[in-house]
Amino acid sequence: MGATSRVLFEKCPLCHAGTVEITSRAAFTSTVPRINPCPICGAIFSPSEGGRFKLGYCDPRKLASARGKTYPASACADCLPFVECWLGKSLSKSDWDRIGSGGTPEAWMAYEEESEALQAGDLPVLPADSESVYLGEGEVVHHISLIYLSEVTIPGNPHDEAQLFLTSRRIIIVHESAAFNIRLADVEKVEQSFPGFVIQAKGVGQPLYCFPVSGDPVYHAIVGALRKIH
Question: What is the pTM of this model?
Answer without folding.
Answer: 0.67
